[in-house]
Design goal:
With 424 residues, this protein is an all-alpha fold. Helices cover 62% and strands 2% of the residues.
Length: 424
Amino acid sequence: MERGAEAVSGVAAPAAPLPAPAPWLVRRLFPLLATAGLLLIGMIGTTLVGPHLIGKTAYSLPNDLWGTLVAAQRLLHLDLDGLYTQPTGLVTFPGAAVILAPAVAVADAAGLSLQHPGPHNLQPAVWLVAGPYMIVISAVALLAADALAERLRVTWPKRAFLAVASGTALWNVSVQWGHPEDAVAVGLVLFAMLALSDGRPTRAAWLAGAAIAVQPLVLLALPLMLVMLEPKRLAGFLTRAAAPSVVLLGAAAGANWTATYDAVTRQPNWPTVDHPTPWLPLAPHLAGGAVAGGPARALAIVAACGCALLAGRRLRASRRAGRWSRATLRELLWWTAVVLALRSVFEPVMVAYYLWPGLAVALIAATRNWPRLIAASAVAAAVSFGSQSSWRSPWGWWGFMVLGLTLTLLFACTPLGGSAPQAA
């Protein structure tokens, strides 16, 4: 009778209150646990277990990290003239040094030396500060992956599995090679896509801009973000996305134009040290046996623009209705994994950690069901650990790595047929 009276009077019953959102620590429990595990295994492995297994007393440390630490120290001391001069070896944007500045500040305050590990520096104490810090900031990628999985309404068991698989793959780029800038940049661009999917393009632009300033490899994902925007928002989005890099690069170039221009445009790599690929004969040769990686990466950007045009028609269909559907976001993530993997396809000289960005994003897209997630995770783990092989065949090593990337993307692939996804 009461319900009938409400219907007659036209007064609706009060809605039940929405449940309070879970605390952030609860919502991000799995990536935080994965970070703790990576931190524990990484530090024990580099200082105790790893050296013991190979019969040495020296720490097993990522060589690439030390030059970036020196660049961060010079940045802290406002020595912009030396940001791109030896021994920094910096070839990415200055944001890579910015993100390490807090660890270097602590090391300076403690009087710790940044001397490169070697016969006279077997167990550098600064690693006990820089190592944990590097692993923790690399976990931005794990947090972004879990936030996207939550947005996709992935079940808790699959989110736990995703955290373990993503943490395993992250070992390659952080602990093994010491490139937290790759993980931070990919994490920031994933958060940018999450903001874009929730109808917050301004926030997405600033996040994308911060990601580019840290590691410009995420420029490969920018065309996909642009096709999702209304034309009237393109100018503002591009301005905000370019601002951080323009400021940082402008400061470095103003202090030392020649060194900054040469490092950022040529991006040298050494085929006698790393893995040559079939593209090596086409790469410009530099002094000291190095080759320029910059031109090949420009080719990858062109290919990424082609992917954006190919996927744009379907993806744009969702932008008119505000908040995206889960199917739209998942499809965008899959295409993002594809374009990030293009770097490995066109590189004249490869390093194992180049494979990580495409693998990391593909795992998020693979959460649609258990078979895809398990298969993609297994292949990603095999690629991550198999890439550490010293095999130097231009077709062999590179061919197997690209095959592994392709299989991961195929397992993660969402159905592309049918009508465009509708917004939620």
